Amino acid sequence: xxxxxxxxxxxxxxxxxxxxxxxxxxxxxxxxxxxxxxxxxxxxxxxxxxxxxxxxxxxxxxxxxxxxxxxxxxxxxxxxxxxxxxxxxxxxxxxxxxxxxxxxxxxxxxxxxxxxxxxxxxxxxxxxxxxxxxxxxxxxxxxxxxxxxxxxxxxxxxxxxxxxxxxxxxxxxxxxxxxxxxxxxxxxxxxxxxxxxxxxxxxxxxxxxxxxxxxxxxxxxxxxxxxxxxxxxxxxxxxxxxxxxxxxxxxxxxxxxxxxxxxxxxxxxxxxxxxxxxxxxxxxxxxxxxxxxxxxxxxxxxxxxxxxxxxxxxxxxxxxxxxxxxxxxxxxxxxxxxxxxxxxxxxxxxxxxxxxxxxxxxxxxxxxxxxxxxxxxxxxxxxxxxxxxxxxxxxxxxxxxxxxxxxxxxxxxxxxxxxxxxxxxxxxxxxxxxxxxxxxxxxxxx
Length: 446
Description:
It is a single chain. This protein is mainly α. Helix content is about 45%, strand content about 5%. The protein folds into three domains: about 15-65, no CATH class; about 75-200, no CATH class; about 215-285 and about 295-425.
C-alpha cells in the first residue's frame, strides 16, 4: 500500500512561508497609526520554535517602545523619571514595576482594572491587556484623578471591608506614592508646580500595635529549634539566639565582626552587665537610606544578649554572611514544635505567622513595656525635646545621628529596665487562661 504523506503542521500566527524555502515573520504592537511593527526573514535552516522565540522577544521590545512612544505621555514620563530619580537598585525595580502597572490600566472611567499579576503576566508575554486607550498613552498633564482614585479603590480593595477595611491599604499607598514621586521629580524645577496626586487621599492604615510575641514564648521557641543535625545547625542556633536577645537585624548581624564590635568584660557580674558594661557596636542599618548613612551605634547588652554574643563570638563559623531563608525555615520549625509543646500544657498560641522579623519586634515590645514610653514599638529611642533643643537641631532625626556615637544614658536605662522586666517576666510561668464556672441563677436572684 502506498503511504500517504501527512499534511504539514500549520504555521504559528504571524509566520509565513517564503517562495524558494524558509519563512518570514511579522510582529505588531498597538492599533491604528500608533502601532509599531517589525519583521524578519529566516532561511530554511531556522526552526519554527526559533522563529517564535524571536517573535516573543521582538514583541516585548516593541511594547516597551510603544509605551514611551508618545512625547508627554505618562509612559514617556516614566522613562524620564527613571533616568532622573536617585533610587537604589531595589527601589528602582519596585518603582519601575509599580509605574508599569499604572501605565497598563485603561484610562476610561469605569473601565476594568487589571491586577498586578495580570500586568506582570502580560509584560512577560509581550501582549497588551486591552485595546482601550491606557493611562500610559494619556498625557501626564491630563491625568484624570477620578480614574486614579478608581484604580486604587478597585485594584486594592479589601477582601471583606466589614472585617478589615484597612486590608491592602499599605500596598495601595505604595502605588500612590510611585505616582506622587514621579510628579515631584519631573516638576522639581517648576516654581509654581502643584503635585496633583496630593489630592488623592492616603488610605488609613491599621492602628499601631505591639508587634511581637511574649518573650517567654520566644524563649520556648529557641528551646525547640532543631539543632541535632550537625555543625551548621549549631551555627544557626547561635545566630537565632543573637537575633532574639539583641536589638539587631539579620543584615546587621552578617556585618558584625566580634573582635572589633563586641566589647566584652569577661569577669563582669550580672549587676554590672545590667548596668551596661558589655556593649556591641552595631553596623548602621541602611533600610530606606541611599545618601545619608548613619554612623554605627553602640548599645549595651542585657544578660541574655551577653550570653548569646559570647557563644556567637566563640564560633568562628557563625560570623560573616549567611542566607536568611534557610535560617527562617529552621526558626519556623522551632515555632511549630514550640506551639505543639505549649498546647500540651494547655497554652494555645498561634505561631504559624511568626518569622525572624518578629524576633526584633518581640524584644522591642519588651523594651517598650519596660521603659514607660522611652522607646517606640520598633525599639527606637524617642528623642527628648530637651536634648534636641540643647543641640540646636531642627529635626529629631539629626539629634539621633549625633547621639548614636556612644552609649546614651537613656539607652543604658532602657537596657537595664528591660533586663529587670524580663527577670520578673520569666518568674511567671505561661499558664492556660483561667476558666470560669457559670453558676445558674436561683429564684432569689431573679
